[in-house]
Design goal:
The two termini are 35 Å apart. The relative contact order is 0.11. With 592 residues, the protein is mainly alpha-helical.
């Protein structure tokens, strides 16, 4: 075993020593504030002549410097909050960073409007001189033309700190205070939401049912707070959209993800047309578990008891070994992440639920957060987040303005890494029973992306339409959620999860609207790439890295055409991609 005695807690002191009391971090924030003031001076001074004489280049360089430091600050505070949700000083720091970012965004509004004011002849000259970032400059210039004037957009950014982002912070605070009782061996334990969520995939149905019931009780107790929060978040967005004259709530998320509506529609339609194998899988799984139909809390249950448990060291070695079958760069990177303590995986209370990868661009490092309890699913999550980190690693070779890739392509590298380890575990299974469990774990992800996330998309789309007419009550949110789940799961379940809208953090994230369909895009897009990698072997790694480096400097349609020769607005690519997932479902049905 190459990797031994690994620590399962991350090292944040390498960035700023002292945690939420760090003097170095306070100095860093002050530096950002000074840089923003300088950037404002340069942005205010910009005009056609300045752009021609080099003033624009100076402003762009300062823009990139601040952007890197803001991202570093946001990552650091996010990690502090995630590792200890009772760290009130970290919450205060989060407010400071949010305020700084709002100040930065205000200046960017001025900067973007100055770009829009440059005449066409001069603009062509600017693009020739800045050819490596021409896509981003054109994107910023065209988007600002669809928004309000500089003063109004700056006002929106300022008001968003307390009137928008604060609602997302409130949700996180409530979740951090929720305690879930759990009885084990006659003793009642108090779990965080994250720890409780880990138990919902346990083999024992009594445990799953009990924990799910206690979680639902918590959501119900706080339903009014959650519904108020969700309504205010949506209300703020809708008011901004109305002021800008935007009628389609998907306009902003599609633009952020640099994709066309035709691409989104083609993807969902192919998924809808291929749901039957997954419906059959859910029915078969219910039969294997001795149930007429699966309930919501049964969907992630293992179909047998042969699930292998992995120690943290075993998981690290397994992942790095399997990554090497694809390429040495990916494997070496993962080994560095484990050795240098980039990962917070300890199974303890007080942590935020879920997992994420945070990028520290000023230090050219990443940090991975999760709660590891040894399951095959945990191993997949670990590989998933390492995929994110690898994406961030390779894109450091391009200039900062070309690093801001959207969420949909962000999920490509993570899902790709996850597929490598999932397939390897399946191939190395010691018995048919273990093979079945691992295969089922893969299919669970397809069900999550094709059904669960489809339900989230349907719910959020319909919720926003109703929210245009006024506040939507908690009871109505339950109805919308259950209706969406029944449709997305094709009626395959017995009981659904009407309070899912309250339990899912993604509905309350303020940085990206519609935090759902990009996951499914990334999953299927990655499957399409993975099918190419299977054919080409290790020779594909350099092509893959080239694709990742381009993820923030073109539309997804252009990205797919350039590196894969695929038209994402048509069904062909999506059909090829989903075939791999359908094959897994069919194999499961054959084995059982």
């Amino acid at each position: 075993m190459a990797l031994q005695h690994l620590k399962d807690t991350w090292d944040l002191d390498v960035f700023f020593k002292g945690g939420s009391d760090s003097p170095a971090f306070q100095a860093y924030l002050k530096e950002i504030k000074t840089l923003i003031s300088s950037f404002k001076e340069k942005a205010d001074a910009l005009d056609g002549a300045k752009a021609e004489s080099g003033g624009l280049k100076d402003a762009i360089e300062l823009f990139e410097t601040i952007d890197v430091k803001i991202r570093q600050s946001d990552a650091y505070v996010g990690c502090l909050q995630a590792q200890n949700m009772t760290d009130l000083k970290a919450n205060a720091l989060n407010f400071e960073v949010t305020r700084l970012n709002a100040d930065f965004q205000k200046v960017l509004v001025i900067f973007d409007n100055k770009l829009a004011d440059i005449n066409e002849a001069l603009w062509e000259k600017v693009l020739n001189e800045c050819s490596d970032i021409a896509f981003i400059l054109n994107e910023r210039r065209s988007r600002v033309k669809e928004k309000l004037g500089a003063n109004q957009e700056s006002l929106i950014e300022g008001l968003a700190v307390d009137g928008y982002h604060a609602w997302g912070d409130l949700y996180n605070s409530i979740i951090g205070q929720i305690q879930i009782p759990y009885e084990e061996d006659g003793e009642t334990k108090i779990l965080s939401v994250g720890q409780a969520n880990n138990l919902t995939s346990k083999p024992d149905r009594k445990i799953r049912k009990s924990v799910s019931k206690n979680l639902d009780h918590a959501w119900e107790q706080h339903a009014d707070l959650f519904s108020s929060t969700l309504n205010h978040l949506a209300g703020f967005r809708l008011n901004v959209y109305e002021a800008r004259g935007w009628e389609d709530v998907l306009k902003e998320p599609l633009e952020i993800n640099r994709m066309k509506r035709e691409t989104l529609d083609a993807m969902w339609q192919v998924i809808i047309d291929h749901k039957q194998p997954f419906v059959d899988y859910l029915k078969r799984k219910a039969s294997l578990l001795g149930l007429e139909k699966l309930d919501w809390f049964d969907v992630d249950a293992p179909p047998g008891s042969a699930a292998k448990e992995y120690s943290y060291d075993e998981a690290a070695n397994f992942i790095t070994e399997q990554f090497e079958t694809f390429g040495k760069k990916l494997s070496s990177f993962a080994e560095k992440a484990f050795k240098d303590r980039w990962i917070e995986a300890e199974n303890r209370g007080g942590k935020r639920p879920g997992g994420f990868c945070a990028n520290f661009p000023d230090s050219r490092q990443s940090r991975i957060f999760m709660t590891y309890s040894g399951s095959a699913s945990n191993v997949s999550t670990l590989a998933h987040e390492l995929g994110h980190a690898f994406h961030q690693e390779v894109i450091m070779d391009v200039r900062p303005m070309n690093r801001a890739y959207a969420m949909n392509v962000a999920e490509t590298a993570s899902t790709f890494a996850e597929m490598i380890t999932a397939d390897a575990a399946l191939q190395q299974a010691d018995s048919d029973e273990e093979k079945l469990v691992l295969l089922e774990d893969k299919i669970q992800r397809s069900v999550a992306f094709f059904m669960n996330i489809h339900a989230r998309f349907l719910f959020e789309t319909r919720f926003y339409e109703e929210r245009k007419n006024g506040v939507v009550s908690a009871g109505r949110l339950n109805e919308l959620m259950e209706e969406a789940q029944r449709e997305a799961f094709c009626g395959a379940l017995g009981e659904y999860h009407p309070y899912f809208w309250a339990s899912k953090l993604h509905f309350y994230i303020t940085s990206i609207p519609f935090y759902n369909f990009p996951y499914t895009f990334g999953y299927l897009f990655s499957l399409g790439i993975y099918s190419r990698a299977l054919k080409e072997g290790q020779a594909f790694e350099e092509k893959y890295i080239a694709l990742l480096k381009d993820t923030a400097s073109m539309t997804v349609e252009d990205l797919a055409m350039k590196h894969l020769g695929a038209d994402l607005t048509k069904r062909n690519f999506w059909e090829e991609a989903i075939a791999l997932a359908v094959r897994d479902a069919e194999q499961f049905l054959a084995l059982t």
